[in-house]
Design brief:
Elements (H helix, E strand, L loop, with lengths): L2 H5 L26 E2 L5 E2 L3 H7 L5 H6 L1 H17 L13 H15 L19 E3 L5 E3 L3 H7 L4 H6 L18 H6 L3 H11 L9 E11 L2 E8 L5 E8 L6 H13 L8 E7 L3 E7 L4 E2 H7 L4 H19 L13 E3 L5 E3 L26 H5 L7 H15 L9 H11 L12 H10 L10 H4 L15 H10 L4
Antiparallel strand pairs: 1-2, 3-4, 5-6, 6-7, 7-9, 8-9, 10-11, 11-12
Length: 482
């Protein structure tokens, strides 16, 4: 598909005077779970029951039926939401985005999709009906028939209203507003806006590409380059804009990232438009690799753990004070410099600079996930603090809790158990125990903020960042990354 066709103005829909289909009424797919006397969950779609398999025992289902329901709801919603290729741009989340996502999950539970799993396209529902604004009841048919006959288009619906059969979950109910139809942005206007906020120069005048490719994404690749002025290495992400479904996201994320600058973030440096439809985003590149290499191959001292926590918390505090939630704090997303520099990555344009697919799952990375992400109770900035606490467990144990468990069971254990067991707990100092306690509070109100943790006495025990350098070198040698 050409760049022009991707972003060209859509033709306004033809206006008709025929009946318009309204929101579905008397349609309820909601899932209600009950427990029988012998501990069997009733009310779950058969596809969800198949997903449970042996991951959640009957005793656990009997003890925590609501947790099982929420875990399966979250898992299936996440699979549906993340279906398709991973985008090269990760949305910068605010509390508004979190609240909107929670509403979408509630709607999902009332949709036909909630009765499907990634393993099955079969639905457990019987036929449902939709009631039009004029009171006409419309039985449902197979969605394929709808697609084949284009019945969801307004004109077709109006012409065949008396004999129309539709599926409730396949209809787009909201029409574009008059303003949207009249003032939709053209690809020329879009490119004009992009160029206004990008460097108008030639990137080859500023950077010299090296032979090292850092990875590839759904719509481009990432490669290393040298800043001609400073001699420092940078990462350049080449984004094919014709493969970006949401052009507004490109604009908004560039504007946000240009204003985000902190010593503990992998910073956005520059952006260029290349060959009209490619966007080159220049970011900092750290040569020490991810913290994951250090935690899996070496044993960190408490002073080194404190040093990493102090640097990460400064980045988290910076984001939180600007209304942004990271949502994926873990060792994979903490990058190190050979001098011990610590920077947080994987948000905005920094997503997938150096990926670690082995530890990624269909529902994101549940092992670092706070319980309230699944239960949706008081879900906000403090999810990053819980994830920091789990990352401390990584630094102590070499991996997060439940890493060897499949995602559904891991989600269940996180939600049902709350705070995980820490094998080396008895070997921790009182200050470290207190710090972990402040992070891993299931009650969100009792959990510390980033700014409060920065004042914690444990961080006063931190070692110099250069103390991390021997660990980085050792990990590189073991992993043959030198």
């Amino acid at each position: 598909m050409s760049f022009y066709n991707m972003f060209k103005r859509k033709k306004p829909r033809e206006e008709t005077t025929a009946a318009i289909i309204g929101n579905p009424t008397n349609v309820n797919h909601d899932i209600h779970v009950t427990v029988t006397s012998d501990g069997i969950l009733e009310g779950l779609p058969s596809s969800w029951v198949r997903q449970i398999g042996t991951q959640i025992t009957k005793a656990e289902q009997h003890e925590n039926p609501e947790v099982v329901k929420k875990v399966l709801q979250y898992y299936n919603y996440s699979v549906k939401k993340h279906a398709g290729p991973t985008p090269d741009i990760k949305h910068i989340y605010t509390q508004k985005d979190i609240d909107e996502e929670s509403k979408q999950m509630d709607l999902y539970m009332q949709s036909k999709d909630a009765h499907k799993s990634k393993d099955s396209n079969l639905s457990d529902d019987s036929s449902k009906s939709v009631e039009c604004d004029n009171g006409t009841s419309l039985p449902s048919i197979d969605p394929v028939e709808i697609e084949d006959n284009n019945l969801v288009q307004t004109k077709k619906l109006a012409q065949t209203i008396d004999n129309l059969t539709i599926e409730a979950d396949e209809i787009e109910y909201r029409r574009p507003s008059l303003d949207e139809r009249k003032f939709g942005i053209t690809d020329e206007e879009y490119m004009s806006e992009i160029k206004k906020i990008c460097n108008p120069g030639n990137p080859y005048d500023y950077y010299e590409r090296t032979l090292k490719d850092l990875g590839s994404g759904a719509s481009g690749m990432v490669f290393a380059a040298t800043d001609k002025a400073t001699g420092e290495l940078v990462a350049i992400k080449d984004i094919d804009m014709t493969k970006q479904s949401k052009k507004e996201l490109l604009l908004s994320e560039i504007k946000i990232m240009k204003n985000f600058r902190h010593k503990n973030l992998v910073n956005f440096l520059d952006a260029f438009v290349i060959d009209y439809d490619h966007l080159w985003v220049v970011m900092e590149l750290l040569d020490g690799g991810p913290l994951t290499d250090v935690v899996t191959e070496t044993i960190m001292k408490e002073g080194q753990i404190a040093a990493v926590c102090y640097e990460v918390l400064q980045a988290v505090s910076y984001l939180h004070n600007r209304g942004t939630i990271h949502r994926d704090i873990k060792s994979d997303n903490v990058l190190l410099g050979m001098d011990g520099t610590v920077k947080v990555t994987d948000f905005g344009f920094c997503a997938n600079v150096i990926g670690n697919e082995q530890r990624e799952t269909m529902v994101g990375t549940p092992y670092w996930m706070a319980p309230e992400v699944v239960t949706r109770q008081k879900y906000g900035k403090k999810v990053d603090i819980w994830s920091l606490g789990i990352m401390i467990v990584e630094m102590l144990e070499g991996e997060p809790p439940y890493l060897k468990e499949p995602p559904i069971r891991a989600l269940y254990l996180i939600t049902a158990n709350g705070r995980p067991n820490i094998p080396r707990w008895d070997n921790c100092s009182p200050k470290l125990k207190s710090f972990i306690d402040a992070c891993l509070q299931v009650d969100v109100d009792q959990r510390a903020t980033a700014d409060e943790l920065l004042e914690h006495e444990f961080l006063q025990e931190r070692m110099e960042l250069r103390s991390l350098t021997p660990l980085i070198r050792a990990a590189k040698r073991i992993l043959h990354k030198t």
